[in-house]
Amino acid sequence: MDIDLLRTIDRFVGQVAQLLLIALVELTGLFRAPRASRVEDVRDVRRIVIFKFFGMGSLLLASPAMRKLKARFPGVELVLFTLESNRRLCEILPAIDRVVCLDLKNFRRTAHSFLGYLDFVRKNPVDLSFDFEFLTKFSANVTLLTRLVGATRHAIGFHCPLSMRNRSFDTCVIFDHSLHISEIYTKMINVACGDNDLAFDFTEESRALRAYGDPSILERLRERHPALAACARLVAININTGPLSHQRRWPLDSFRRVIEGLLAHDGVGMLLIGGPDDRAFVAGFCRTLPATGGRVVDVAGITTVPELIGLFTRIDLLVCNDSGPLHYAHVVGLPTVSFFGPETPRLYGPVGPGHRVFYLNVSCSPCLNVFNSKMSTCTNNICLQQVPPDQVIAAVETLLFGAAGDGAS
Question: Rounded to 10 degrees, what is the CA torsion of 191, 156, 203, 304?
Fold first, then answer.
């Protein structure tokens, strides 16, 4: 299903469904044992379910919080309810015991997979539920439906200015924009863990991704492209942003100038990455490039996720927009140069040394946030257009040839 259609359904149909479900939950509650009003009152926790549907990168960044939850409740079964497209990644994350997926390929599959989830929680009641989505009505309605089929003793979600959504949860957690998203997820699970420690690291996630990755892709690419085999340094470049926001794209002409600047250095090769849906876009961009001597190779749509992760363990740098590959690179330890504007790097930017983030902090930025469902009417993303290619080239050269740099511009 198209993401814009899902947002429209969530905005209008979700509101009506929420009203009906809240009424049903409160009515049926008259005939059931009262649920725990405080999370501390939930004893013998055996099963926890987490709802997180959108954003593969967000799921990766939420993994340290899920690990902390498993450490607090050893022996608990941690279930993730997510989209089918996220299954392969989620099955390798260290804290998740079971992945239950919603298939959005068509209405029949959506209905069948959703009913399958409800049947699962009916047969396997949930002690705690965490809604890792921000302000969507859909995930709050999933919480309510889970409660209707007799599951969930205590539900936790993010506080919403629209108080109706808050009635879906027993405990609401403030979404603190001053924190990194990994800290925000940790803040939520701290409600059950009983502390306020927001520390996180990606040690276990990095190990899992490296084991999942297929680094042999690099040898195959070098065999097919002899010019790459002669390059001492390799840079991946992602000019795409995925289906959610074209506003996140740094201008193509700016990417082109960076590629031209890197071609001036002998021994630097570049790989243009992307998913299957990006193939035509990347191929069209490649046709606008000057003669590259075979040192710029289009691999968009021909590498699997394991191959992309494996590639990130073997190359030297990733240059990209705010997108999923940035989070893979960050977690496996690949240095990055990235561009933020519609979204703030305070929330989603890579942390630690070896990363350079360009963020101009113009007056209209960030225009994508949880309170507008990350929908923007912007058609002139000056927050990215004004990022100077010459400064980006200098940052890339520093990370490739000099001491690793970090920070924001």
Answer: 180
